[in-house]
Amino acid sequence: MAIKLLSYIFLFYVGFYFYRLAENHNKYKWLCGFLGIASFYLGSIMYILYIRFFTETIINEFEITNLSFKSSIAGFVFVVILFKTLNFIWSKKKKLKNEVDKIGKD
Length: 106
Fold this sequence. Notes:
By secondary structure, the protein is mainly alpha-helical.
């Protein structure tokens, strides 16, 4: 029960940080919040599918806890990579736009 509560709190913060990222760069706020949550689930599912289809290991019922923990870490890594990528791309566009605006004012 406590693990589920912690995962909901974690997903809330993921959505919140993506929301703030979109707010800082004048993008769609709620869409980016949901994108952050969906990216966590996508990363988790991709890890499970990778283990299932591309490795030779057989998943026993006793290894499900270990697999869920590793898939949560993979989802977290996927969220961090997506967050950093979006932040880098949007910051670069914002910086380029500011430099273009300064050209005509000299």
